[in-house]
Amino acid sequence: MHLKIAVLGGDGIGPEVLKQSVKCLQAVAETFGHNFTFTDGLVGAAAIKKTGSPLPDATLELCKKSDAILFGAIGALEYDNDPNARVRPEQGLLKLRKELDLFANIRPVKVFPILAPKSPLKEHIIKGTDFVIYRELLGGIYFNEKKLSEDGTKASDLCEYTEGEISRIAHMAFKAAKRRRKKLTLVDKANVLETSRLWRRVVTNIGESYPEVELNCLFIDNAAIQIILDPRQFDVILTENMFGDILNDQGSVVLGSIGLLPSASVGTKNAMFEPVHGSYPQAKGKNIANPVASILSVAMLLQHFGLFEEANAVVAAILKSFQKNIVTSDVMGSSKYGTNYVGDFIAENIVDSDDNLTMNDENIWLGKSTII
Ligand SMILES: NC(=O)c1ccc[n+]([C@@H]2O[C@H](COP(=O)([O-])OP(=O)(O)OC[C@H]3O[C@@H](n4cnc5c(N)ncnc54)[C@H](O)[C@@H]3O)[C@@H](O)[C@H]2O)c1
Ligand SMILES: CC(C)[C@H](C(=O)O)[C@@H](O)C(=O)O
Ligand SMILES: [Mg+2]
C-alpha cells in the first residue's frame, strides 16, 4: 500500500517521540513491502517562531493532501506561563482539527497484563481493563464564543452543541460498542447543564436503533470516581469535548503512565494519529520521554487502513519491549531506558510472524476491525 503521511512533530518531546514512530513505520514498510512516504510540517510554538502562525498554510495544505497525519505534541512553557499571549501553540492543533473536520477522538485505555503490576492502582482492580473513550472533538466549550470584557475582569466561554454534532459521534460510538462488549456509557452533567440534557435526549433516541447495545448514563463527577474504583465496568465511553479531555488523562493513571496512551482523531475524510500526552517541556532533549503512546498511535493508523497484520506486528514488538523490561522510567518501578533505545528496540522487533497474532489474542488490543 502507498500512504502519504504528514509528520507534525511540534514542540517539546513531540519530535523526539515521533521520530520513533516514523522508524517503526519504516520498519513496517520494509517488512511487509509497503511504500510509506513522510513529509514534515511545522506546527505549534515551533511554527510560531518561524512563521508567526501556529498552523502555517503550507502545513494545512500538506495535511489535506496526505492520507494520514502523525502528530507529536504542541505547547511550550513561555505560553503556558503567559495568559496574555494572543497567539498560542494550542490554536494550531485546534485549527487543524476544525479544518480537517476531525470530530471524533478515539482513545483506547487497555491495560497490558504484563504492565498491570506497575500501575499506581491495585493490580486486581485494573487487570483486564479495556475501554475506549469516544470524545467529541469539535464542539462544546472549546469552539464556541469566547469573551473578555474590556476592563479584563469578566470572561466567558460558551458551551454549545447541536443535535447533528452529537449524533454523528454517537453513531460511531454505538457501532464500536456493537463490535465490542455491547455497552455504552454516556458521560455528562445532565443534572446541571442544558447541553448535557440535549446529549441525553439525542443519544437515548439513537440508542433505539442499536437494541443490542446497553446504554447507561453517568454524571462526569461520578465517572471520575468509577474510572479509578472499577475501570473494568466500562466498554465504550461517549462524551463531549471537555469532559473527554479530562477523563482521558485520568484513564492513563489506570494504565500506569500517560506515555502509554495513543489516540486517533477521525472525521469524514482525514485521520490524525497522536499520543494523548502533551509536549512535556521539562523532558525536552533529555531522551527520557516514553515513545510507546506515539508508536501505539502508529498501530491505530495501520488499523485504520485495514493493515491488521502490520498493526499486530507493531503491538507485538511493543509487548516484547515490555517483557524484556525495555521501557522508560515513567513505567513505575522499571528500568530507565532512553526514548531512542526503546524506539530502536521496538522498530527492530517488528516482524511478519504468526506469533504476533498469538501475542495479541492474549491481549486483545486490536482485533480485526477498523476503528471507525
Ligand atoms: N495533544 C497535545 O499536543 C497536547 C496535549 C496535552 C497538553 N499539551 C500541551 O503540552 C504542554 C504541557 O502540558 P502538561 O504538562 O499539562 O501535559 P503533558 O502531557 O505534556 O505532561 C504531563 C505529565 O505527564 C507525563 N508525561 C507526558 N508525556 C510523557 C511521556 N511521553 N513519557 C513519560 N511521561 C510523560 C509527565 O510526568 C508530565 O509531567 C502544554 O503547553 C499543553 O498545552 C499538548
Ligand atoms: C492541547 C490541547 C488543545 C488538547 C485538548 O485539550 O484537546 C490536549 O489536551 C489533548 O488532549 O489533545
Ligand atoms: Mg488533553
From TrEMBL:
Instruction: Quote the Pfam families the UniProt record gives.
Output: Iso_dh
Q: Which cofactor does it need?
A: Mn(2+); Mg(2+)
Named from the GO MF annotations, one term is: magnesium ion binding
Q: Which SUPFAM superfamilies match?
A: Isocitrate/Isopropylmalate dehydrogenase-like
Q: Which domain of life is it from?
A: Bacteria
The Isopropylmalate dehydrogenase-like domain extends over 4-346
Enzyme Commission number, as recorded: 1.1.1.85
Q: Which UniProt keywords apply?
A: Amino-acid biosynthesis, Branched-chain amino acid biosynthesis, Leucine biosynthesis, Magnesium, Manganese, Metal-binding, NAD, Oxidoreductase
How does the cofactor attach, per the note? Binds 1 Mg(2+) or Mn(2+) ion per subunit.
- Pathway assigned in UniProt: Amino-acid biosynthesis; L-leucine biosynthesis; L-leucine from 3-methyl-2-oxobutanoate: step 3/4
Reaction(s) the record says it catalyses: (2R,3S)-3-isopropylmalate + NAD(+) = 4-methyl-2-oxopentanoate + CO2 + NADH
Is-annotated flag, keyword NADP?
no
- BP term (GO), one: L-leucine biosynthetic process
Cellular component GO terms held in the UniProt record? cytosol
Q: Is Oxidoreductase given among the entry's keywords?
A: yes
Q: Belongs to which family?
A: Belongs to the isocitrate and isopropylmalate dehydrogenases family. LeuB type 1 subfamily.
Q: How does it assemble?
A: Homodimer.
Role summary? Catalyzes the oxidation of 3-carboxy-2-hydroxy-4-methylpentanoate (3-isopropylmalate) to 3-carboxy-4-methyl-2-oxopentanoate. The product decarboxylates to 4-methyl-2 oxopentanoate.
| Protein known as | 3-isopropylmalate dehydrogenase
Q: Which organism does this sequence originate in?
A: Kriegella aquimaris
